[in-house]
Amino acid sequence: MTITKSTSTSPWVRNPTSNDTSSCKTHTVSGGHGHAFEVKKGTSFRIIDLHGLQIVDMMAWVLPYPSSLEHLSMAYTRYHLNGTAPPAIGDHLVTNKSEPIFKLTHDDCHTHDMTFMACNPAFYAEKGVPGHRSCAQNIAEAMKPWGMRSYLEAASVDPFNVFQNTPDMTLKDLGCSRAGDFVEFEVLKDAVVAVSSCPYDVDGFGGGKATDIAVVTGLKSNRTIVVLAGRGSPVVVFSLATAPTKFPGYG
Prior knowledge:
It is a single chain. By secondary structure, the protein is mainly beta. The chain is built from four helices and 14 strands. The strands form three sheets. Strands 1, 2, 3, 5, 7, 8, 10 and 12 form an eight-stranded mixed beta sheet that branches. A four-stranded antiparallel beta sheet has the order 4-11-6-9. The longest helix has 8 residues, at 74-81. The radius of gyration is 18 Å and the shape is globular.
């Protein structure tokens, strides 16, 4: 098994939810910084908290960016999940086109947020710390090769806040994730994903210090999906490469 690594050795390629790691790549994202990467339908990617207690803001746009205008939407995801509780294994994250973009296939933490915005430079300036790194700025910098010009473009999209412990909009100083915890998503639409190792460290939040995370891409998802349409209905089997982008209940 050959693993291509960007900046560090990663052991985070062992999990039965993905059946082929021969083409995967691992990238370490420095604490308080961001990273963007493209993902293809039929693959999976993984976000790992390397040290514990680190929140990761995640945004995604359907390719081609920016002309598709379709992006991961927390408002539509909350609607389809009937509330603000984090998704369970097998649930989908949904775009502003009301179509699934990712399926959650592994989750060590089960604690995430779909309500808070991404922090931005103006947010920190109001708190008396101008120049502080922010998630919106991190994502704008990471997305620059795709044409993003301002942090306000990132700030206009609410992120999926991985490992963030903020139930019902309450701020908890410490998260629940431990070193090595990860989430894994199956990709249902070609997309560019941007992540930020959240630099918010005010009042000891997130352990008081942003730490490194890792992203693993190129994992091959299980190739066969079996769908039970309902009692007495036939079983539908199709390959992941030809899986539909619309599912029951998604319009």
